[in-house]
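Q: Please design a sequence for this.
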């Protein structure tokens, strides 16, 4: 299993970013995917998740109305569109999947929201 995130960067408050996570090494369309984040000094927290078909999505309260998770099973990629970004969204963002009870993680992509 390999998960590779991209799309992070420095953005001003109120700006937008779209994160991508390219997956390989497993049957992507069979597994739910999630985005997590970890801010300095804080525990890793769930941001959003999406079912294997994309029909069901769930969001943490922190991202509701601002973040959208989606996936393209033909491209083995999951996305996180983040709008109206706030300084408190600053964190390393990770994509994740659980396969056979094992949680797999990418290397993360840094998102910094600052003026």
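A: Design:
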């Amino acid at each position: 299993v390999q998960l590779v995130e991209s799309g992070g960067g420095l953005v001003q408050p109120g700006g937008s970013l779209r994160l991508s996570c390219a997956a390989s090494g497993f049957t992507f369309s069979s597994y739910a995917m999630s985005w997590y984040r970890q801010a300095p000094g804080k525990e890793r927290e769930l941001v959003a998740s999406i079912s294997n078909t994309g029909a069901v999505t769930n969001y943490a309260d922190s991202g509701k109305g601002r973040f959208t998770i989606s996936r393209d099973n033909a491209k083995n990629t999951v996305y996180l569109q983040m709008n109206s970004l706030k300084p408190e969204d600053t964190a390393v963002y990770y994509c994740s999947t659980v396969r056979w009870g094992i949680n797999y993680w990418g290397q993360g992509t840094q998102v910094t929201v600052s003026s």
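Q: Thanks. Anything notable?
A: The radius of gyration is 13 Å. The first strand starts at residue 2 and ends at 6.
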